[in-house]
């Protein structure tokens, strides 16, 4: 076959594939908009399975057929991965979680390490025992180069004592000092001001967080419960090493 004809044929094939992908994406968006108008889609892309697409909604990942008819949630595994069954869904969800948590921006209470090596976000409840234990060792985390971004998740819910404490801490002149005192059981003076507590709680709900403390690494890995500074730095270093390999 003439080389020019071959190149032209290949160009048509690849162009056709791209167009087909765009058509499927449009069909999926139209289907979701019609059947689930409150579904705020961030991204649609092809999955490793032919005819199946990934739909990213905030920190969550769903799968949908290319005609936009069938939608389901669950984890997709590669059973032929040499190193073992690989969870393809979790890898994508970690990236989505990291993006969602960082989108909060500066609307957090951050304790910054002098020589910052790692940054983690911690959903906390002022009245949670293990949250208080974690914060009692805040100097040790920072000593090991771990900065902590606190987000509020009063598990008792909105307009409860824990919720009001979170708002009062945020509205204090020195948020770090107020949080530390509140974690020691010293009830902060009641204050009100514009605050991100509801936003933090909404994010916790979308992440399906049920308990506190809940640690989320910069890479989107979730670690429930208290983790000592020594153990946490070990996890973070192994995670970073693994991501570079």
Spans of 5+ residues with little confidence (pLDDT < 50)?
3-18
Kindly report the CATH topology of the largest domain.
Glutaredoxin
The appropriate CATH architecture of the largest domain is: 3-Layer(aba) Sandwich
Q: What global shape is seen?
A: globular
**Elements, N to C (H/E):** HEEEEEEHEEHHEHHHEEH
User: Given the helix and strand composition, which structural class is it?
Assistant: alpha+beta
**Biggest β-sheet strands, sense, barrel:** 5 strands, mixed
Tell how many strands the DSSP assignment holds.
11
List the domain count as a whole number: 2
Q: Level of helix content? A: 40-55%
Structural summary, described in words:
The protein is of the alpha+beta class and 245 residues long. The chain folds into two domains: 62 residues, Disulphide bond isomerase, DsbC/G, N-terminal (Nuclear Transport Factor 2, Chain: A); 127 residues, Glutaredoxin (3-Layer(aba) Sandwich), CATH 3.40.30.10. Helices cover 44% and strands 19% of the residues. It is built from eight helices and eleven strands. The strands form three sheets. It has a five-stranded mixed beta sheet with strand order 7-9-8-10-11. It has a four-stranded antiparallel beta sheet with strand order 1-2-3-4. α5 runs antiparallel to α6. The longest helix has 33 residues. The protein is globular. The N terminus is likely disordered.
